[in-house]
Amino acid sequence: MPEQTLQDLYISELKDLYSSEQQLVKALPKIAKNVESQELSDAISSHLEETKNHVTRLEQIFSSLDENPKGKKCVGMQGILEEGEETMDEFEGSVLDAGVISAAQRAEHYEIAAYGAVCTYAELLERSEDLGLLKETLQEEKNADEKLTELSESINQSALEGIEEGEEEVMPERRQVGREKTGRNRKTRSAA
Fold it and tell me: Any idea what the CATH number is for the domain that residue 97 is in?
């Protein structure tokens, strides 16, 4: 194996992030349709637009490096999204929303760590234009995580109150339509 450089690692990590962001662009619309809280749905939809910008920034960086962004699958994000899908299959109502926030924060923390690393590499490699773009994305990921934390306060409380009162939550019509469009079947729960 030829000797590899920090530049090689930098490009590899950027490709991983590109794959991660592409997976999120595909997953976020479905997630936004399946949550109960309109505020959470709006936050996810807003972050979708930011995520599209993250893809564009990464494409700018790859263009300046004269590299192709494709060719690597981010298995870390794939796993996080698969776990989130399981949550969406198992829960509903405010409990589902609490689970979606948990999964979304795992995704954000994964990206915060990855963007932090590539920022360090860009700085060491003296790629100041890249660094500016990467820091902008890193800050947006941190902001998204903070927004999710804020939303979790009321949503987690709603999930707790629903459990304490023993109320069965009814799946909102828009979630049902979203599931029919994606062809997903939920595990059915029998009412006690």
Answer: 1.20.1260.10
Gap between the Cα atoms of 189 and 192, Å rounded: 9
Question: Mind listing the pLDDT tens digit for each residue in 140-160?
Answer: 999 999 999 999 999 999 999
Count how many residues are written for the chain. Answer: 192
- Can you tell me whether residue 169 is helix, strand or coil? coil
Domain ranges, residue 19 = 6-164
CA distance 95 to 137: 30
Which of helix, strand or coil describes residue 74? coil
Q: In the structure, what pLDDT confidence band is assigned to residue 186 with cuts at 50, 70 and 90?
A: very low
Domain count of the fold of the chain = 1
Tell whether 84 is covered by a domain: yes
At 73, which amino acid appears?
K
Secondary structure (3-state) at 28 = helix
Written as one string, the DSSP assignment of 120-150 is HHHHHTT-HHHHHHHHHHHHHHHHHHHHHHH
d(CA 154, CA 98): 9
> Cα separation of 24 and 107, whole Å?
9
Question: Are 172 and 68 within 8 A, CB to CB?
Answer: no
Q: Are 77 and 20 in contact (CB under 8 A)?
A: yes
